[in-house]
Amino acid sequence: MKIQIVMHLVGQLLLLLATIMLVPFGYGLLWEEPYYSFITVSVLTALTGGALYYWGRPGTNYSLRDGFLIVSATWLLSSLASALPFYFSGILPSFIDALFESVSGITATGASVIADLDSVPKSFVLWRGLTHWLGGMGIIVLVLAFLKNLGADAAHLFNAEASVPRPGVVLPRIQSMAVKLWRIYLLFTAVCCILLYGAGMSWFDAINMTFSTIATGGFTPNAAGTFAYADNYWIRYILVVFMILAGGNFTVYYSVFQRGIKEIWYDFEYRMYLLILGIGIMLITFALSVQGSESFLQSFNDATFMLISMQTGSGFAVADYDVWPMMAQMVLFLSTFFGGCSGSTTGGIKIIRIIILVKSSIIYLRKAIHPDMVQAVRINGKPMPVKWIQLAQHFFFLYMMIFAISSIIIAGTGLNVGESLQCVAGILGNVGLAFGTLGPTDSFAILHPVAKLTCVVDMLLGRLELFTLLVLLHPDFWQGYFVKQRKRSYRVVMR
Question: Which of 118, 196, 287, 494 could be stapled to 328 by a disulfide with Cβ–Cβ 3.0 to 4.6 Å?
Fold first, then answer.
């Protein structure tokens, strides 16, 4: 059966996840009391992974359909396994809450249902940070980096996890590229952690804040969050720099290491990314300055941090933006839709898709005036295939449709219209921050269980670029997966 190939690879991932669960257990063993829920879940995950590995069969030929199933199964099972330590330990006695917390962590959303984080053992705080860090770069990229002999078709796994159109990128050695991306990811992690420690954080806080920053997650190691460092401008701007870096394309950084810093400026998407950030910062600074409650410098600092945090999906806060002018709040709200560059750890629509949609719309208007005109959408001097333009259009439609449906469902649970829209925008864009009762000083614990489950689905959809999960709902997708393949026999006829 074709499903056995999927089982084999997913089993390997679960075995890797089971091993990683020993990290927070080891921390508890050394620095506080050991929490055996990690051991229990690690064993259960290992047994599940071992069973899938044993009953599956290795393969080197993967279709894009296989990629969709492997990626979806990996993320769903990882989310479930990551929730069990919270549930078994009693930290989150509601399984829905435990699942919400784990999915929020592994999708790097950063929305939390824990009202008092200071009462939570540090082993679980570390586990939250680890889920951020693992999910930030992408679980499948991790698998590609560490597992060997997956074959040339492993590119389908990469494309299934991040179906973002990227002009001029060819990845013939996908595993080699995955290793290089993780090296850059590790480098950013190490540098950010050392700088935060040097700026005044404890090692524990620095490690966990680094996990969240590089993954553009939003989980913080204490209840005060980034508000505790609001007056430390060294920490502020270390976080700002690395949030911007995490929101950029990691393949561009690889080019920078090869050919120099100019590669960032040569990349049109990265330039637009920085331009959009700059425009947003100026608009918010203007709105805060007009209000007159803060100095211009303070307004600029707060605007810079909050806009970058919201657009990159980092979800940190150093100011209560609920009291900001409506113009500033509207800019923050719209920034949750933009996201960062393709190949980044951010969520949202992504800058590359916005560029494609804008350019294709302009060309459409020109063709309305000159019907015989032939003009292609070009990015970095390369024409975009029509299928990529259509992919961006379909993605935008589905994104807005899911946004609308989810908002209606959450509003049906009792949340007012404005907060429902803001909640879904933050969740679907993997930002983790909203407004009002779900603002920077509150948790998502107040949501109805139905609303929490809706958020769980939206977080996964946002992180996996919609298509990866949605294609599983089509009946044709499963055709042939559970049919036992017969070996072909040949008869030799002697004449």
Answer: 287
57's CB contacts (< 8 A; 6+ apart) are: 4, 5, 8
Cα–Cα distance measured from residue 475 to residue 143, given in angstroms and rounded to the nearest whole number: 28
User: What is the DSSP secondary structure assignment for residue 444, as one 8-state letter?
Assistant: G
Helix (H, G, I), strand (E, B) or coil at 379: strand
- Cα(143)–Cα(146) distance, rounded to whole angstroms? 5
- How many Cα atoms sit within 13 Å of 17 on the Cβ side? 34
Please check whether residue 355 is in contact with residue 382, taking contact to mean a CB–CB distance below 8 angstroms: no
Q: Which pairing describes strands 382-383 and 378-379: parallel, antiparallel, or unpaired?
A: antiparallel
Q: pLDDT digit string (tens) for 341-398?
A: 887 888 889 999 999 999 999 988 988 888 877 788 888 788 888 888 888 899 999 9
pLDDT at 171: 47
By C-alpha distance, which of 75, 58, 79 is closest to 472?
A: 75
The residue assigned the tokens 């949605």 is 470
Dig out the tokens for 423 from the structure. 């909640």
Helices vs strands, H then E, count in the chain: 21, 2
The whole-angstrom separation of Cα 40 and Cα 45 is 9
What's the mean pLDDT in 31-58?
89
pLDDT attached to residue 173: 58
Which residue is listed with tokens 């990265």?
A: 270
- Output the six-digit token pair for 255: 């080019």
| DSSP letter string, 199-245 | TT--HHHHHHHHHHHHTT----SSTTGGGGGTT-HHHHHHHHHHHHH
Cβ neighbors of 122 (< 8 A, separation 6 or more) are 27, 28, 31, 32, 204, 221
CB 345 within 8 A of CB 215: yes
